[in-house]
Amino acid sequence: MNSGRPAGASDTQPDEANLIRKAKSGEAGAFGCLYDACVDRIYRYIFFRVTDAQLAEDLTSEVFLKAWGNLHRYRPGGPFLAWLYTIARNTVIDHYRTRKQSVSLDEAVIKPDPALEAKLDLQYEVEALQRAMQHLTEEQHEVLTLRFIAEMDTGQIAERMRKSEGAIRALQMRALQALARVMKANGRQGT
Question: Which of 113, 118, 163, 190 has the most beta carbons within 10 angstroms of its beta carbon?
Answer without folding.
Answer: 163
